[in-house]
Amino acid sequence: MTGLLVVTAVPAEAEAIRAGLTASAAPAPPDGTAPPDVTVLAVGVGPAVAGAATARLLALAEAAGRPYRAVVSAGIAGGFVGRVTVGGTVLAERSVAADLGAESPGGFIPVEGLGMPPELLGGGRTVLADPGLLARLHAALPGATVGTVLTVSTVTGTAASTAALAERHPDAVAEAMEGYGVAVAAAQAGVPFAELRTVSNPIGPRDRSAWRMREAFAALTAAAAALH
Ligand SMILES: O=C(O)c1cccc(C(=O)CC[C@H]2O[C@@H](n3cnc4c(=O)[nH]cnc43)[C@H](O)[C@@H]2O)c1
Hints:
Elements: E1 4-8, H1 11-24, E2 38-42, H2 47-63, E3 70-79, E4 89-97, E5 101-102, E6 109-110, E7 126-128, H3 131-140, E8 145-151, H4 159-168, E9 172-176, H5 179-189, E10 193-202, H6 213-223
Parallel strand pairs: 1-2, 1-3, 3-10, 4-8, 8-9
Antiparallel strand pairs: 3-9, 4-7, 4-10, 5-6
Helix pairs in contact: 1-6, 2-5
Bound molecules: the ligand O=C(O)c1cccc(C(=O)CC[C@H]2O[C@@H](n3cnc4c(=O)[nH]cnc43)[C@H](O)[C@@H]2O)c1.
The ligand O=C(O)c1cccc(C(=O)CC[C@H]2O[C@@H](n3cnc4c(=O)[nH]cnc43)[C@H](O)[C@@H]2O)c1 binds next to β3, β9 and β10.
InterPro entries: FL_hydrolase_MqnB, Nucleoside_phosphorylase_d, Nucleoside_phosphorylase_sf
Protein name: Futalosine hydrolase
EC number: 3.2.2.26
């Protein structure tokens, strides 16, 4: 069995995590035979590309007889104001495909409410984090906010959509664009899953000047020690 697979959307996130892993690594055994315990790869933005790439990585590792022991979707995220602070760290109890469903004049209908046969929905639009993996990450990151992390295909950018999303998901602390896709790939491969995010921006009316990328990448580097 190989180690942990950490997938990010973009290379800058992967580099921030690798920097934290290097800074916190135990000394390597002198014979140089130990396999890497954590592999960090940037797989792309959005649930489809991240999910497909993760599924391929898991399948290739399994076919080679070296399956990963767990997968973590990691990177930056938007945070719900009042629920998490910009620069803060978030661990997902569940990753939820927030926009998987249908609009209607009466509001958003989640995919589970559309009358489709349950076997076509997989686990629905919610994937729970592996409890053991989540507990281990939380023990290493006691300051992290634990809650629902939404997966969206469109970054939320108006007051109205922010309010609607916050009302539909009172337990959601953050939104990002990959977690649910990675979670489905992990679930189908039978591999434990968790999602780790650091908050780069408040969710709300689009305002790039409010994004704090440097803070969020620094928080990712600091959080990476928990992944050993
Ligand atoms: O909105 C933009 O103009 C923009 C331009 C360049 C890059 C980005 C991103 O990298 C954001 C998407 C990326 O980061 C995660 N993320 C960060 N904040 C949010 C958010 O408020 N809502 C959804 N996703 C967010 C996401 O996982 C992507 O990988 C944006």
